[in-house]
Amino acid sequence: MKDIISGLNKVFDSRVRLGIMSVLVVNDSVDFNTIKDLLNVTDGNLASHLKALEKEEVIVVKKQFVGRKPNTSYSVTEKGRQVFKEHINALERLINNK
User: Fold this and answer.
1) Which domains does the chain have, with CATH numbers?
2) Of 43, 61, 89, 96, which is least surrounded by CB within 10 A?
3) pLDDT tens for residues 33-42?
């Protein structure tokens, strides 16, 4: 059982970041308020985690106006999809002890 946690990605250590990525990989795009409601987190908490994921280039931000209201939505990048998949695979190996 050699270094069974080596495949885990530190970017996704937080439960909030894991939740954000889980929501985004199954949707084309999700807006800020929807993510906030799904994960039951505060604006500031969510914003800091989204910023960290954006810095790692695993998500992209799209700001636009819907009517006269600003709307910020997020989607996963190809890099993000790949590294998240690798992280999930590493978690499964850890759980299954393989």
Assistant:
1) 1-96 (1.10.10.10)
2) 96
3) 999 999 999 9
